[in-house]
Design a protein that fits this description.
Layout (H helix, E strand, L loop, with lengths): L1 H22 L2 H11 L3 H6 L18 E2 L12 H6 L26 E6 L10 E6 L7 E2 L4 E4 L4 E4 L19 E2 L4 E5 L9 E4 L30 H7 L1 H7 L17 H10 L2 H8 L6 E8 L13 E5 L5 E6 L1
Parallel strand pairs: 8-10
Antiparallel strand pairs: 1-6, 2-3, 3-8, 4-7, 5-6, 5-11, 9-10, 11-12
Length: about 325
């Protein structure tokens, strides 16, 4: 008797499930539910356009993801090979030999000339962008970005201070890359608190912080702005000129000889330092150097240490150059 009751109950339960299946839409409902689920592979690798974005291990969580840019042409199509198009720039050639389909009008005018994306440590991880020597005018990098085609992570080219002042809050502006000029895009925080344009006095900053790569050490010679005239000899003393000739470029002394006059000490204090040098030489036509140092301010590595495909995109999202490693 109990066995019969259990069998009847099971049959009634199965019939109820079948009725419920048809009432709720059957296979159509199941298909709708399946279509609404995100592809698990897309969730893992960050390629989904609608699901959640999961950062890869080397990427900080605050980064944003751009559109899919993984669709680019091969190394060189048959038409380019036949026409002899060798993709040569007037400067250093990009490491990538792949030609994007969505090419920017700036392609061949700004390119990735060097990188340390594979380095371990945010302070060593940078990408160098260089403008071609043959460009007719400066190129504004406003709203340009670097984006990985593998992970989708993207970062904008930072603004930079046109004249960096040590110990002050610096105003920043979009970068205009002149012909032959370069910009270093470093993942780390700036050693001096801001992105900036290099100048003939920037080498003094090497004595305060470590820069990768190191800043130029070709500063104006200490006695350069103090002419050896009879009047200056009376004001500063002959020992002042002798001491200035012993100082290295881009070096500010921490101790001074006891036989220097107070006027000489004041001159050394006001000129043989970064701010002193910039105040003295900022109006010189050769003051600015064709290089910018920009910093993304991240504490975690941005690019993969093994393999990645990094696109330089203009303000319209078109590919200017590609780095593949």
């Amino acid at each position: 008797m109990i066995k019969r009751v259990l069998i009847v109950s099971a049959i009634v339960f199965i019939i109820a499930l079948i009725v419920f299946w048809f009432v709720t839409g059957g296979w159509a409902a199941a298909a709708r539910t399946a279509r609404s689920l995100a592809n698990p592979l897309e969730l893992i690798f960050g390629t989904s356009t609608s699901g959640s974005f999961i950062n890869l291990p080397w990427q900080p969580g605050e980064l944003t993801r751009g559109p899919d840019i993984s669709d680019y042409a091969g190394e060189a199509d048959a038409r380019n090979m036949a026409s002899g198009d060798s993709d040569q720039y007037s400067g250093t050639q990009s490491e990538s030999t792949q030609r994007p389909r969505n090419s920017s009008p700036y392609s061949g005018k700004v390119f990735i000339s060097e990188n340390t994306a594979t380095e371990s440590g945010v302070s060593k991880e940078f990408i160098q962008l260089t403008a071609s020597d043959s460009n007719a005018a400066p190129i504004a990098l406003t709203n340009w970005v670097l984006q990985s085609a593998v992970s989708g992570v993207r970062v904008g080219i930072p603004l930079a201070a046109p004249l960096f002042v040590l110990g002050a809050v610096n105003s920043v502006q979009p970068i205009y890359l002149e012909p032959g000029a370069s910009v270093f895009v470093t993942t780390a925080v700036s050693p001096v608190g801001a992105s900036f344009r290099e100048n003939i006095c920037s080498g003094y900053l090497n004595e305060l912080q470590k820069f990768t790569p190191e800043l130029s050490s070709e500063c104006p010679a200490p006695p350069e702005s103090l002419a050896m005239t009879a009047e200056n000899l009376r004001i500063y003393g002959s020992s002042c000129f002798d001491y200035l000739n012993t100082l290295n470029q881009c070096h500010f002394p921490t101790t001074l000889p006891g036989d220097l006059s107070s006027a000489c000490r004041s001159y050394i204090s006001n000129t043989t330092s970064y701010n002193g040098c910039t105040n003295t030489y900022r109006n010189r036509t050769s003051f600015n150097l064709p290089a910018f140092r920009t910093y993304l301010g991240l504490s975690t590595e941005l690019w993969a240490n093994s393999h990645d495909v990094i696109h330089l995109l203009d303000e319209q999202g078109r590919t200017v150059d590609v780095l593949t490693y």
